[in-house]
Amino acid sequence: MAMKLSQSLKQTQQLMMTPQLQQAIKLLTLTHLEMTNVISQEMVENPMLEEMDGGEPAESKVESDYREEKLVMQNAEAKTENFDAPSVVGKDDFDWSSYIESYNNTTYTSPSTNSTDLDDLPNYENIISKGKNLPEHLEWQLRMEDLTKEEWDLTQNIIHNINDDGYLSIPFEEILAQSPLEREHAFEILYKVQSLDPVGCGSENLKDCLLAQARILDIRFPFLEILINNHLKDLECRDYEKISKETGVNVSKIKDTEIIIQQLHPKPGRLITCEETFYVVPDIYVVQSGKEFVVRMNDEGVPNLKISKYYQNLYKEYQKQGDKVAKDYVEDKLRAAMWLIKSIHNRQRTILKVAEAIVSKQQDFFKKGVNFLKPMILRDIANEIGMHESTVSRVTTNKYMHTPTGLYELKYFFNSGIGGKNGGVDISSEVLKLKLKQLIDNENAARPLSDQKIAELLSREDVAVARRTVAKYREMMGILGSSKRKKRKSADNN
Length: 494
Known about the structure:
Layout: H1 19-28, H2 32-45, E1 49-51, H3 63-77, H4 96-104, E2 127-130, H5 134-142, H6 149-159, H7 172-177, H8 183-194, H9 206-215, H10 222-230, H11 232-236, H12 240-247, H13 251-262, E3 277-280, E4 284-289, E5 292-297, E6 305-307, H14 309-321, H15 324-361, H16 363-368, H17 378-385, H18 389-396, E7 400-403, E8 406-409, E9 417-418, E10 427-428, H19 429-441, H20 451-459, H21 467-476, H22 482-493
Parallel strand pairs: 4-7
Antiparallel strand pairs: 1-6, 2-3, 4-5, 7-8, 9-10
Helix pairs in contact: 1-15, 5-6, 6-8, 9-10, 10-13, 14-15, 15-17, 17-18, 20-21
C-alpha cells in the first residue's frame, strides 16, 4: 500500500501576550495619580527615559491629536516584527515559587493597587472619595444583567461568600444546595460572576481562577488552558521537559505560554480595595463646543517622554566593544522605556475611546441634566468599541470625568433600564431614584405616599414599575415607608 506525502499551508491564529500589552493592561487599572507616580518612579529607575524639552506640551493635546496618533500606532502595531522582540520578563527568571506562595499568602497585593502616600499629595482643588468594596463592585455589574429572582438570589449568595482575595470562602456545592436552580444553570451563573471585573472572583481555587481569566482573552488558546489545568506544579518546578514529553509541545512554546500565565492575577479580589480614602483627579474633561460636547484627555502631570540620545549612543559603543553584560543591561532598559511610552499612549487612547462612546450615547444628559440619563450597560459600550465587558469595567472604575455639571465617575453613566415593560418608557435606575426622591420630598406630610401610589404616579409619566420595585429603590436610598414617614414628621412637628 503506497503512502502519499503532500505539503500544505495552514493559517492559524496564535495568542501572543506581548510586553507592550502586559504593561498596557497594568497601566489601565491605575488611577491618574497612580499612573503619574509609576511614570515618575520609572524615570528614576530607567536612565533611558527623558522628558521632552520644548515642543508641544502633553496637556495641550486634543481629540484630533489622539485620532492621528491612533492611526500611526495602528499601522506600527500591525507589523509582525513588533511581536518578535524578547520579553522584558526573562522566561527562565520568573519565580514560580513566589507566585504560588502569593496565592497562599494573605499579604499579597497587586502592583496596580499600590497605596499612594496622601501626605505627598496636594490638599486643594481635589475631591476626596471612597471606593466600593469587592461585593459592591460585583453587584454593580450584576445589576445590569437581566436576571430572574432565583438567579439574583444565587449571585448574591456567591458574591457575599467571596473573601478579600476573590475566592469563595465556602464550597460552591454548599451554595448550590440553597438554590432552586438546576445544577447546569447554577454553574452558568457562577461563570457569569467569574467573568465580571476583576475576572476570576468567585473561584474555589487557583486553577479555576486562572482558567476564568484565560477564557476572556481575545483569542482562545487551548494550550494555555492545558498548562493551567494539568501542569501548574510542573511550571513551579520548571520541569519543561516533562511538560514537553506529556503534551508533545516544544519547550520554547511552553515558555512563551508561561509568560501569559505570569500576567494573570492569583488574587483578583485584591485589585479592588476601598479601605483608603483617595484623591480624585479627572482623567477626562468634557467641554461644550457649539451644540456638541467634546471629550479631552487630562494629560496634566503625564510627562512627554522620549528615549535618551546619550544612552542610545552608549548602547552602540557597547556593541562595538563587544561588552555583552553592559550591552544587555542597556538593551533591557531601552526596550522597557520604549514599551512604557507605548503603554502610556495605549492607556490614554483606551480611556478616551470609552469616554467618547459614553458621551456620544449620553448627549441628552450633558445638554438637559440628570433627568435625561439614558439606560446604558457595559455591553453597550463594549460592543461599540470592540472590547470585553470586563475591560470596560476596568476602564470605568476609579476613572473620573469632569463635566460642565460636575465630576462623575465613569461608572455613574452605566445604569440598567427600568419601567420599559408593557409599553412603558425605559429610564435609568438613577433617574428613577431622582423621581422617587422628588415625589417623596413634595408629598403631603399628613398623608405620605404609599409605594403603590408612587408606582401609579410614575405610570402617568409612562414609567411602568411595580410596587415592589418602588419599595426596593426607596430602601436603597434609605427612605422610610409611608407609615414611618408620617410618624416621624408628626414627631418633628411636635
